[in-house]
Amino acid sequence: MVFTLYFMNKPRLTVLLFAILLNFSELLTAQTQNGKITYAEYIKTYREIAIQKMNEYGIPASITLAQGLLESGTGNSSLAVNANNHFGIKCHKEWTGMTYTMDDDEKNECFRKYASAEESYNDHSYFLTSRPRYAFLFQLDRTDYKGWAYGLKTAGYATNPRYAEMLIKIIEENELYLYDKPGAVALVKNEKPADEDAGNNYVFTPSDKTFKFLEVGEGNRKIYVNNNVKLIYARPGDTPQTIAYDLGIHSFQVYQYNELGRSEMLKPGQVIYVEPKKRKAEVDFHIIQEGESMREISQMYGVKLKALYKKNNLPEGHEPETGTKLYLRIKKSGNK
After folding, report:
1. What is the CATH number of domain 39-87+117-180?
2. Residues of the chain whose pLDDT is less than 50?
3. DSSP letters along 41-52, please?
């Protein structure tokens, strides 16, 4: 009662004290928020390392990133902060490096400690490739992130019964499957600041071709542009019909623009043009790399497949050998 009466008689002091407490509370909140790594920040920081390890070891970058996000609490867990351990890998009998002790499934368990997060990523790749129980995973296509997710659970990487579903959810919500595509090494080019179009500002670059983010269209589809032709990336479960519905076009156009077979299944991250491709590219030629098909090159440069065959005096359906110089702007004879 005395306390209440005192402040009733001191209104200015009451207001001042309240303002100080409010500012202090806001400061603490801001410090807490600013001190935490977000999903977007984590992905931006470690995606290049994940892609590098994928090219070295064959583990999908999407799986590596999803495991890093999940196991490290987006880089905010005590294990990640104090031991640079982003994958929850325990010591095991062969480990001779630094260690970190914490409670997990049991009390005072031994975890590996690293000098850097990159060292943790490297050890994660070595860990999976050096243990026989994970060997079957490397028979899967590296774009089969679902197979990898369920395989990791089957092999006993984690005890959580929903581990595979959790990884898949992270991959699909953040479109991490885009990082599994060949040549996904330039995803940091031409980015806008984090507060501009957050989440929609990355660029995907297969074989040194940059597809720039253009806009968000109908159905919340992220639309990109290549060779002045609009395109999207297929989402998990997409069909030409779902894409056509979202973008207000006909499904036959999706088939036609991308030379798709009627029974062909779309893969997550697959490039799908939503308007006709051009008859020529922005560059003169392309040297065919191992494993590249004519249709893949057509998609890569935004050039109609028939035009590609015609420019190079090739019969439709023919697949040139690796190392062949493929003309993209002029005919092989040199005529326009």
Report:
1. 1.10.530.10
2. 1-33, 186-208, 335-336
3. HHHHHHHHHHHH
